[in-house]
From TrEMBL:
Annotated GO CC locations: plasma membrane
Domain NfeD-like C-terminal: start-end pairs: 678-732
Domain NfeD integral membrane: 519-644
Residue ranges crossing the lipid bilayer per the database entry: 540-559, 565-585, 592-610, 630-648
Protein name: Uncharacterized protein
Keyword field contains Transmembrane: yes
Organism per entry: Urbifossiella limnaea
Chief location category: membrane
Cellular location(s): Membrane
Signal peptide stretch: 1-27
Organism lineage: Bacteria, Pseudomonadati, Planctomycetota, Planctomycetia, Gemmatales
Membrane-protein topology: Multi-pass membrane protein
Keywords of the record: Membrane, Signal, Transmembrane, Transmembrane helix
Amino acid sequence: MTRSDRLPLLAALAAAAGGLFSPPARSQNAADVRTTEGMIVAVPSPITSEGVQRIKNQVEARVNNPARPVKTVVFEFTPGGKEAANTSFGACYELMQVIDRFKAGTTTVAFVTGKATGHTALPVLACRELVMARGATLGPVAADGVAAPGPAELAAYDAITKDRKLPAAVVRKFFDKDVRLVRAQAKPGVEPGGVQYVDANNKAEMARVVGGGEAVEFAPDGQVAAYSADQARQLGLAAGVLDTRADVAEAYNLPPGVVVETTLDRAPDAYKFTLTGDIDGGTREAVGRIVRDVKRKKGNVLFLTIAATGGDLSAARGLADDLRDAAQGEDGVLVVGFIPDGAPDAAAFVALGCGDIVMSRRVDATDPGTEPGEATLGDFGGSIKGNKAGTLEAHRKSLRDLAEKRNVPPVLIDGLFDRDLEIVQVQNAAKRSQRRLMSRAEADAEKDKWVVTRTVKPAGQYLKLTASLAEELGVARFTVDGRDPAAVYGLYGVSPDKVKDVSAHWVDKFAEFLRNPAVTVILIIVGFTGLILELKVPGLTVPGIVAALCFILVFWSQSRFSGEMFVLALLLFLLGLALLGLEIFVLPGFGAPGVVGILCMLAGLGLLTFEKVPDTADQWGMLGYRMVTYFGGVMGSVALAFVIARFLPNVPYANRMVLMAPGDGPNTAALPGVAEAAALMGAIGTANTPLRPAGVVRFADRFVDVVSDGGFIGAGARVQVVAVEGTRIVVKEV
């Protein structure tokens, strides 16, 4: 059907909406209406030969896809409402040819949201249908530095006018100011009949109408024309007025996903990756590195299998934003999220951040560990139980914002969090093809306008979107029968053997290994063992280095996941270490500073594994459990340190790190200085430096290195030698 053939029908259907376009109803039951496979292509301005080639590749890849061929292609000529002023006839003619070649079996639609001037009109008119937004204008062609078309250019405009059965005078008025556009009634027997727009200076056209016609006020004589949306619809150029991509998707019964669709400008160069485990800050970093790796390899498609089990909702939202951003720019990557089983809470955020969502109906599920039934999107039961109301509300708003960017009805997101909400599908009482999802309360409030066709979510349960329901409602782009990702590749025209693996970076694998609870406990045991040995035997160095390395690895691996808690955990650990050092080196005995120091270190290590401050009883309980686990590790460290101190002197080579005490046997050689040290037994001297507990004491004219018997002794105090162990001299204050 040509554009002019459809105009009377379109006008009748649009009348109730004040001129808004609405397509013919395909079914009397809105629940039976299936969406038409389609795509929206943003036409860059200015139009260039390179840009036309990219558009050609984009459309051909989708139209010729044997699995899901596109039936409707929408060309958006003024993306974002920006003016499209194209002075190059050649590039516009090339785009016209590309559009024209798809006319068989494919509906091409021009969508204009801003000013479209110059030769932009040529590919716009080449489309089978034209829709415009309020405030948009089309034309003129010969203005603002664009010369009037020459013979070859006129021939192109005439060919498009004839092929699309457009009013010739209306098109010529774009570039010929001498056209006198008038409105007149067609003579009986003239097809098409009714109101005609003709050139009063053209005798052949005037011979087809009755009388001399009436001047068109918005196309004055002596000027080239630019038509607004309403004027273009009145003249027979435009099918209707649509303001947004979402309006276009609804009018042409396209999947909601086309509103944010990322189209490919070349043949797919695809990679694949599987997302597993809990989602947290480290996951976000890892996937970010993978996306950058795909871009570096010049890839443009990433098939992301979502097998994650949950995690931090804030980190998941950040990852979703990263995936959306990955589609932008010249090196944009289309991220296709595949859900083989389920995408609960945090995984749902990630899925909604993908360019497309594909879900499994799992009809071939033979894995005993796989539950029967379809894959599901959105199960927030665990998050609802484990978070406070304020936190849940913040996450709900965040997910609503993400869903709205994908043109997903916000009421569906509300249903994921609100058990009592009832969601219904309605259709417009006047335009039965117009469908909406809304709450039962909203439907009852507007029951004169909307007719409820079915209940999508009954009250009393949380919403879980199955694969079939998600596809029907436009949340999922496609569904496949099995759980094998290879079935997804064919939907995008990619052979499974052409999809390349992209693995996680070794840094991410190493951090994930270190984050294993068992590995973390081992690192803590080794770290505290080294710390105890270094404090017990100052100067060994090696245990201190090992302890520092262990704690650095623990904090580094956990810092990638702990988010806002990292700084607090680090400060608590350092405070505990400082208090422990104060207890050992300054204060006598073992009292409050030592106990508090150990508790601070354990609290720091416990908080390090949390993504946020615990705010529920379960989370506080988990913190206590981890602190007890790490305390057990500390006790193990004490035992291990004593074992090492006991047996290390007997280990060959390793005993060289330990200073051996002089033996008692008859053949034992006396160490240098032993006799001089023994002679000081009972001697009284003056502390030349503070003893902390080590320091220097003056005996007559000799300065000797000593240690106190445990307490701090200030400089100038009188001290007495109370013990001599080899060359080690112990003093006390007198």
